[in-house]
Hints:
By secondary structure, the chain is an alpha+beta fold. It has one domain: HIT-like (HIT family, subunit A, 2-Layer Sandwich). It contains two helices and five strands. The protein has a five-stranded antiparallel sheet with strand order 1-2-3-5-4, covered by helices on one side. The chain is globular.
Amino acid sequence: MATVNSCPLCHLDTRPVLWQDEFCRVVGVETLDYPGYCRVILNAHVAEMSDLPENDRYRLMQVVLATEEAVRAVLKPTKINLASLGNQVPHLHWHVIPRWPQDPTFPDAIWASSRRLPAVPQIADLWAKLTRSLQERLDYLRQSGCGLHPKA
Length: 152
């Protein structure tokens, strides 16, 4: 079991940080096979959603859903996969994965064996576009009082 000292998600991520606050962050996973793949990572070293107080569960899911919406708006994938696994790294994080019938493992999970070479859409300035889209959504949630507020 990873401890705070050995947990790779407790430390600064070298991936593109698309959005962050004191509670969580959204990072881009740079892969040609699944462009737009993001992770929403809780900043605290917590293993399970049920370990969080209800308001923090809600807050984290608001960020996950805003990330999904941003990915859909920018990339227009056929499907979005959401996953919270943590088998290898027991630190609460969500995968937000855009999917297309042409991606290497479709219709299987991205961790399955490849069926084909990737032929998914490529997009110029992907991370900049996703960052803008995500920021707009999360700013709206914060301003509208939808539970995305810093802890008191």
